[in-house]
Give the backbone structure.
Amino acid sequence: MRALASTGLVDVRPRVGATVSRPTVSEIVELFEVVAELEAFATRLACQRGRDAPVDAIVEMHTLCRQQAETRSADAYYEANTLFHRSIWIASENTVLLKQIELLNRRLSPYRRTITFNPGRTQSSEIEHETIVNALVRKDAAAAGAAMRDHVMILSEDVLHLARNLKL
């Protein structure tokens, strides 16, 4: 329980017990804002470090995403998308950054998964990924980082849209 509480997934209260955390919409948006900046930073680092093997792995994961998008399986696409993002975090060669992104993504994964199922999201995500990959291949750190930040921030906009539709 302590491990779950340390990640923010569980709230532990004395004499009450443990309950699943229920973040507010604004807290979820704030989490996406932080993750967007961390992923943008990881993307810039991956670009600046410029090693061919990690960039090749990112391109390979992008290809996998495209293949999974064609299957129309949101679950398969979600897994491929996670691998794509993770390949960029790894290419940053910053383990502290990688661990922080993973920690925050554990809290955001239910929302990311839900958004993946939105109509048209997979297709627009693939266009965004293409922009990120092209900038990485060109070693344009500023463009790659900005593209990643924009890509992740679109998810926070989707959360706001979902919350409005559900009247949360």
Notes: Residues 11 and 19 are 5 Å apart (CA to CA). The longest strand covers residues 10-13.
